[in-house]
Amino acid sequence: MEFEWDSKKNKNNIEKHGIDFADAALIFDEDMLVYEDVREDYGEKRFCGIGVLEKIEIFVSYTLRGEKVRIISARKARKDERQKYSAIYAAQSSEGKYGLG
């Protein structure tokens, strides 16, 4: 999987949230909760991903550009986002990843 981002936006994200997009990209290799961001019309499909980076749940906003994932922002997940992630993956670990026990 290839990633891209705006270097200026990445610098601003590091200053504001303390997360580098290069590090945020690592959650795509692990279990990740993904849903489409439909809060407004962005002119393209945007997605929200919640996953774990160094034992901390993070939230990543991204879009797909051809074969690449374009990261838009990354931050520590809010409490409600952490709860969504935990609810999904706690259920999977008790039932098996695909509910097969």
Note the topology.
Elements: E1 2-4, H1 7-17, H2 21-24, E2 33-36, E3 46-53, E4 56-65, E5 68-76, H3 79-95
Descriptive report:
This protein has one domain: Nuclear Transport Factor 2, Chain: A (Roll), CATH 3.10.450. It has helices at about 5-15, 20-25, 80-95; strands at about 1-5, 35, 45-55, 55-65, 70-75. The protein is built from three helices and five strands; from the N terminus they run E-H-H-E-E-E-E-H. It has about 100 residues and is α+β, with helices and mostly antiparallel strands. It has a five-stranded mixed β-sheet. About 30% of the residues lie in helices and about 35% in strands. Residues about 95-100 have low confidence and may be disordered. The radius of gyration is 14 Å and the shape is globular.
Provide a quick synopsis of the model.
The chain is 32% helix and 34% strand.
Which short descriptors sum up this protein?
about 100 residues; alpha+beta; Nuclear Transport Factor 2, Chain: A; five-stranded mixed β-sheet; 3 helices; globular; disordered C terminus
Number of strands: 5
- The gyration radius over C-alpha positions equals 14 Å
Uncertain segments of ≥5 residues (pLDDT<50)? 94-101
Distance between the termini: 30 Å
User: What best-fitting shape do the alpha-carbon axes yield?
Assistant: globular
CATH architecture: Roll
- Main-sheet strand order equals 1-5-4-3-2
CATH topology heading: Nuclear Transport Factor 2, Chain: A
CATH class: Alpha Beta
Helix-strand pattern: EHHEEEEH
Beta-strand residue percentage: 25-35%
Sheet/helix structural class: alpha+beta
Q: For the residues shown, what is the average pLDDT?
A: 89
* The number of domains: 1
Main sheet: strands, sense, barrel? 5 strands, mixed
Instruction: Give the number of helices.
Output: 3
* CATH homolog superfamily: Ribonuclease toxin, BrnT, of type II toxin-antitoxin system
Helix content: 25-40%
